[in-house]
Amino acid sequence: MLTSSIPHETELSHRAWVIDSGGSHHVTHERDIYVDYKALDRTFVRLPNGQAVKIEGAGYIQLTDALSLHNVLHIPEFKFNLLSVSVVTKSLNSKVNFTSDACYIHALTQELMIGNGSQVANLYVLNVDKSLCHVSESSLQGLSVYASVHVEPDMWHKRLGHPSLNKIDTLSEVLSLSKQKINKTSHHCHVCHLAKQKHLPFKLSNHMRNKPFELIHIDTWGPFSVPIVDGFRYFLTIVDDFSHATWIYMLKQKSDILHVFPGFLNLVETQYNTKVCSVRSHHANELKFTSLYLEKGIKSFHSCPETPEQNSIVERKHQHLLNVTRALMFQS
Known about the structure:
By secondary structure, the protein is of the alpha/beta class. Helix content is 22%, strand content 25%.
């Protein structure tokens, strides 16, 4: 049974989509906006006032890029289009939030906003493309209508693996954020406290090189307590000292580095038309490429046992990778 009521005196366009929390179906009176349509014969629906109206057909409408409406009833006698909240939450796996002057539709999986509406004449009206639906100009006076999805800094903080707000500041232009909206004093993230408990930093003693691949830092990490789907339990991290460009190679066994690292040296020579001059690593057996270094003319530097701070560049890179991984896991 379709349950809905619309005030007689509204300033809405006849093409407006009213967000209806009491409607059991999507309803439209417009035949030309259907993508797929099936005519129905002898099918009626009863309104709250007891009147029975004929359903001419039903079908699929692509209302926006994110809002796909299935089984939309075509009832020419209706004066407005109805978007059923109950159908949207079930069919699109979403939630709908109402405020005093707006309405927001969010996907449950990633909290992305897939639709929003504004309050007009005591009704919540969906904001969609003007070619499909519009509200009269007089009804928009004094209202703030969102034409595109706006993402707050906190959401980017979560999406990017919980970087510091200074990093979000740096990316503010790329992310179309206003720096004034990032309130650092009131920002408290519970996930960051769980994911980023770390030792105080050591003083940086390495001298940055003058060109790419003059010095690279390498190290392995693992094993994972549980292998990933493809069976990998380790990874090799390679960081260029000059640019801090980073390469990550997944390994099933530590011995796989014997094939992976020589391949990386060949990749540098082929793709970048240069050679690696020196390599810094910790004092592990799997990282001692003595014969390979002699063959390639590469200088090798090793940290003392039990002093990872001497290989600080790649150790900090590991710290960053694992912080992001933990943060995303806790966030999920």
